[in-house]
Design a protein that fits this description.
- The chain is an alpha/beta fold.
- The protein is about 40% helix and about 15% strand.
- The strands form 4 sheets. The chain has a 7-stranded mixed β-sheet with strand order 6-5-4-7-10-15-16. Strands 11-8-9-14 form a 4-stranded mixed β-sheet, with helices on one face.
- Helix 1 runs antiparallel to helix 2, helix 2 runs antiparallel to helix 5 and helix 5 crosses helix 6.
Length: about 350
């Protein structure tokens, strides 16, 4: 995928000189550095270590990983095994399990060059989808809106532009005045580290808050909308997203504030009927015990670390996709928007 030289945020993941190159998100905001993967093992490690994260970004990364396998592994059996490892690297993000088979199918039909071409298409389609999401979502925000967001659903979580931050970015680009409350997002601080970094680069006013302050802001009337991304959306509209999203939706409903989810249709999993069937990843307890490598809990005390929670569809005001805005009942509206593109007419 070609770099947009006018974008202040570099591509999250791309193919460069026979390698999968990605922003090392663990180093931000202190340092912008890149990791270049020359083996499938390195790509899998980058996914599991959160060097790269965000459902749409993982879809593109998985596809590029297959392209890399096609060039570095001599047998078809080996490439297929590598694809299985890539697809299973993180279980909750449905885009990863979608991007990998696309590139693998292209490889089976046309070889390594076809796999790379398909991976490039996955990345380019994601950027185009995110820009469309931004346009639809921006229409939901008034001029002067104060938006609360959680985790990072910006360029760094996608192949470019962003989903939830894409909505905010598009609103700002259209001339609307927008200010953002940024949840720090414990335990890995994707909001404080990544979302705040992106918004600073974009020149959009942002204020980082402790996660526990969100309820107070909603109660005092200082939030006009909550806008978040998603890692998987079930057919009924239940939404899996970064842990801490569900309580925000409960608080937003209590204070009559719209709770909006922004995600491409590739994140909608119509084969999963509801949130109870979404696999929820648990990560290392050390992510809770440590901050910046320094232990904050007593030795011997247990820690739990669910990476995601599931927000019931009943708490979701709207789901913004590149094909339009879905509203309840989501079984019907998501089914319509996820139908083959030729039969879909986007509607705001």
């Amino acid at each position: 995928m070609k770099l947009d030289r006018g974008d202040p945020i570099p591509p999250t993941v791309e193919w460069r000189r026979g390698r999968v190159r990605m922003v090392d998100q663990r180093a931000l905001p202190q340092r912008l550095r890149f990791v270049e993967c020359v083996t499938v093992d390195a790509v899998v490690d980058a996914i599991t270590s959160l060097t790269v994260r965000g459902a749409p970004a993982l879809g593109a990364t998985g596809a590029y990983g297959v392209a890399l396998a096609a060039r570095t592994i001599p047998s078809r059996r080996g490439v297929r095994a590598a694809a299985r490892r890539l697809a299973r690297a993180r279980p909750t993000a449905v885009n990863l399990a979608a991007g990998v088979p696309r590139a693998l199918t292209a490889y089976e039909a046309g070889g390594a060059d076809a796999a790379l071409a398909e991976a490039e298409r996955v990345a380019a389609e994601d950027v185009a989808a995110n820009r469309a999401i931004g346009a639809f979502g921006a229409a939901l925000l008034r001029d002067g809106a104060r938006v609360l967001t959680h985790c990072n659903a910006g360029s760094l979580a996608t192949a470019g532009y962003g989903t939830a931050l894409g909505v905010i970015r598009a609103a700002a680009e259209s001339g609307k005045r927008v200010a953002v409350w940024v949840d720090e997002t414990r335990p890995v601080l994707q909001g404080a580290r990544l979302t705040a970094w992106e918004l600073a680069r974009l020149g959009i006013p942002a204020t980082v808050i402790a996660d526990v302050m969100a309820g107070s802001l909603l109660a005092s009337g200082d939030v006009d909308a909550v806008v978040v991304g998603a890692d998987r959306i079930a057919a009924n509209g239940d939404v899996a997203n970064k842990i801490g999203t569900y309580p925000l939706a409960v608080l937003a409903r209590r204070h009559d504030v719209p709770f909006v989810v922004a995600a491409p249709v590739s994140t909608v999993d119509l084969a999963t009927p509801d949130g109870a069937h979404i696999p929820v990843e648990s990560r290392s307890p050390d992510e809770v015990r440590l901050i910046a490598g320094r232990r904050i809990t007593p030795e011997g005390v247990a820690a739990a670390n669910r990476a995601f929670d599931v927000t019931p569809a009943s708490l979701v005001s709207a789901i913004v996709t590149e094909r339009g805005v879905a509203r309840r009942p989501y079984v019907r509206s998501l089914g319509r928007l996820c139908a083959p593109a030729e039969g879909v007419t986007p509607r705001p």
